[in-house]
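Instructor's aside before we start: the two examples that follow are unrelated to each other. I chose them only because their records fit on one page, so don't look for a connection. First example below.
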Amino acid sequence: TYSESMEDCSSYSVWQKMLEDVKMAKLELSTWVSDRPDYFTTGYKVVEYKNDTVSEWIPIFNSTSDLVGPFSSEDIPILSLNFTEHKPADKYLYEAVKANLYNGNGTRLGYTNFIFYARNSSDEVQLTGYKRYYFDGPWRGNPSCSQFISLDYLSGFDFEMVTDVSSPSMFEFTTPEGETYSESMEDCS
């Protein structure tokens, strides 16, 4: 297991404080490629409590999941995506995964944003991206966190992704072989 955390990012303590106000969440996908379903499809599931297990993936047809909540700040759900590759990237592909976080009144307080870039180089798919979080609403103005990364451990859009906004290792990936990798913000500027 390879792990990177967001704990050392200078704004992470503010992020933790903001999470105390979070009561609802929504997962959102966006892409620049109109024929994305030819390359991969996605489904999501929500683990309401850290010890729960959910076995069914719900297909995402219109780019967003259902709003999840209300919940307490101690039990913010884990949002999972299952990417199923249909054919390897033979052109430049872009995919953004965003977890929007809301208070009890529906005001967005912040969001995570993980952006994937896929390209074919020498008949091999290369994935890179950005891992980020931002503040919004009454928390706007606090410093955000963003870092470019190479996703060498992923060979295409066939993996599971977990977004756990209350964990220092917010983004976790599991390959079809069962290997798990997490992303860190240790040297985030």
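Example two begins here.
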Amino acid sequence: MDSSPPLTSHTLAMHLLDSLPSPPNSNVSNNNNNTKSTPILSSSTSNNTAPISDELLLSLHFLFGNSLESALDIIDRQMITHIVSVPSGREMYHFQGKSKKVHFASKHYCTCMGYKFGVILRGDSLLCKHQLAAYFASPMAWKIRRREISDVEYDKIVYSPS
């Protein structure tokens, strides 16, 4: 008998998201300056950038629909900052929306209403667009601003009343 858990849309989605390529270390910037690279969504593999396959994108689009498009739009518009606390290495993502609303997300939580209602209350979404953008932030690190903050600053953000 097979003792593996049943395949659900959530486990399939997490498997697909975990299969996103990792960025080469040479293209990751530790400050606010972005490095130039080949777009990750192209079929080109120059500059050591592994593209995301069309099959993977189609599978993710099937599961996430417009949320995937919104997540990629967030990255394209550079409305995301990867925040890493030093020395602990905890990380989160900061999103500055078009309406000047600020959201903080990790791959497991988001402060937006889409997460609260669509993911938590109704359960009709697996992840919000901010969480999806967080998953794509690693393979697209060359396009994401990175900011290092102290552990104290990180705790103030995480534990402040919202």
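The beta strands are 80-86, 91-96, 102-105, 145-150.
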